[in-house]
Design goal:
Elements lengths: L2 H10 L6 E9 L4 E8 L3 E2 L9 E16 L2 E13 L6 E3 L13 H13 L2 H8 L3 H17 L8 E10 L2 E9 L4 E7 L4 H12 L9 E4 L3 H10 L4 E4 L1 H22 L1 H8 L4 H12 L7 H12 L3 H22 L2 H16 L4 H12 L1 H9 L1 H20 L6 H12 L26
Parallel strand pairs: 2-5, 7-10, 10-11
Antiparallel strand pairs: 1-2, 3-4, 4-5, 5-6, 7-8, 8-9
Bound molecules: zinc ion (ZN).
């Protein structure tokens, strides 16, 4: 190769003195481009104590995977000097500017990997980059940990606390969101009250103040309530719409399951003439908003609404609760929301449907917090959106879904971390002053 090509790649790789490309080897059959990089300087400062002009003791051969050049997989190779220091007596390897100590990837390659993992499942990103999944998981964890150390939480006042399970119904993780900045603040294993204590500590470690938390939006778990009361002493609790409406859906399902199991004759009399497909449509229709019903579901639900079944009453109760919440969203008046919720509670209590009587008792015992949640429209919408993003993060960890991996990928995607490596996908700027030109 001629000198100009080495000079071109020296600047394309962003290398600065004393580092320069000595040789470039292209293997078209193997789709590889290998760069030998060298440090020409005979005397270097000691990395351990800083003493200048120390002799190179020896050189250790190392390699790093770099961003592909065109269709070629690119590798850097260098004999990295170890400085034998006469001042401190130590022999220390110097750092290289293109890579973190101990990493077999260049910084740019790591930045590319992190950028891909924000949008792709990690397994897919690893496949595209032709590396092992494990190599990416290690780096995600490293960079997220470093970035979180510098994360500022000083202004956090409104939080959303939620649980999510790594596998269906097991292995729970507690997540805390900043509902103003719309970012994931904290994520930890478990769902007991101590998870809130852990959050309060983490908040303090990042410049935040647990007593400054004015509002906590959460589901109706007793553990979270205990945690918030103890560790976020000034927080007003509100129960978010998403969870309350979900409880009504569960109550409805409980009524239906019980009735279809124990009162088959009545169910047959009311719905026996429906085809199996129409029966399935009833099940789906019950869980959906009428505005989302298909034609088949609309017809099937017509039969349910006419039926004198507990299931039909349970469905009406659930729809009515949805409406109470929807009304509150539009009028946003505490007094009116409270009055409408009270009316619903009294209907539910008289319904002779045990799951709804129990739900009414629960809502009544947390009445103020439920009403607050009805009005807190902004955070409600965000809680639902975050829930969807959490599911995506879980899919991104498919095959490697340990709590540590899930927590790391959730921070990477939802944490709005400001100290992560910059994506190498920055748009090219037009040629201008300062751009090195090389004639080939
Ligand atoms: Zn030294």
């Amino acid at each position: 190769m001629n000198v100009q090509i080495e000079a071109l790649f020296t600047s394309a790789l962003g290398l600065q003195a004393p580092w320069a490309v000595r040789d470039v080897r292209l293997d078209t059959a193997k789709h590889r481009l290998d760069f030998d990089v060298e440090c020409k300087q005979p005397l270097l400062a000691c990395p351990a104590c800083g003493a200048s002009s120390q002799k190179v003791h020896d050189r250790l051969s190392r390699s790093w995977r770099h961003l592909d050049f065109f269709q070629y997989e690119a590798w850097l190779h260098a004999e990295v000097p170890r400085v034998g220091c006469t001042a401190c007596g130590k022999t220390t390897q110097i750092g290289v500017p293109w890579s973190r100590e101990g990493s077999g990837f260049t910084l740019l390659f790591e930045a590319l990997a992190l950028t891909l993992c924000r949008d792709l499942p990690v397994r897919q990103a690893a496949k595209n980059l032709r590396v092992r999944d494990k190599q990416l998981w290690r780096r995600i964890e490293h960079y997220v940990t470093e970035a979180r150390k510098k994360q500022d939480m000083a202004k956090v006042q409104i939080v959303g606390i939620d649980e999510t399970s790594l596998r269906r119904g097991q292995h729970y993780v507690t997540v805390v969101h900043d509902l103003d900045a719309k970012r994931l603040l904290f994520c930890t294993e478990g769902r007991d009250h101590q998870t809130i204590q852990a959050f309060a500590k983490d908040l303090q470690a990042h410049g935040g103040e647990p007593t400054a938390i004015a509002h906590a939006c959460m589901d109706m778990s007793a553990a979270y309530l205990r945690g918030a009361t103890t560790y976020l002493p000034n927080a007003l609790v509100s129960y978010d719409r998403f969870h309350v409406v979900k409880l009504a859906g569960e109550a409805m399902d409980a009524v239906r399951t019980e009735e279809w199991k124990t009162e088959q004759a009545r169910v047959e009399a009311a719905l026996g003439h429906l085809t199996p497909k129409q029966r399935r449509s009833v099940l789906w229709g019950m869980r959906r908003n009428p505005s989302g019903w298909s034609k088949t579901q609309t017809e099937a639900m017509h039969w349910l609404q006419r039926a004198n079944l507990k299931t039909a009453r349970a469905w009406r109760l659930r729809m009515a609760l949805r409406e109470v919440f929807a009304n509150a969203r539009s009028h946003n008046q505490a007094a009116q929301a409270g009055a409408e919720l009270k009316a619903w509670l009294s209907w539910a209590r008289r319904s002779r449907l045990d799951p709804f009587k129990r739900l009414a008792a629960t809502l009544k015992s947390h009445f103020d917090s439920v009403v607050r949640g009805m009005l807190d429209h902004r955070s409600n919408a965000f809680v639902e959106a975050m829930n969807g993003l959490m599911q995506q993060a879980k899919r991104a960890a498919r095959g490697f879904r340990t709590a540590a991996n899930f927590i790391a990928i959730a921070y990477l995607r939802l944490g709005k971390l400001t100290h992560l490596p910059v994506s190498p996908f920055v748009p090219a700027t037009a040629p201008s002053a300062g751009v090195a030109r090389h004639r080939m």
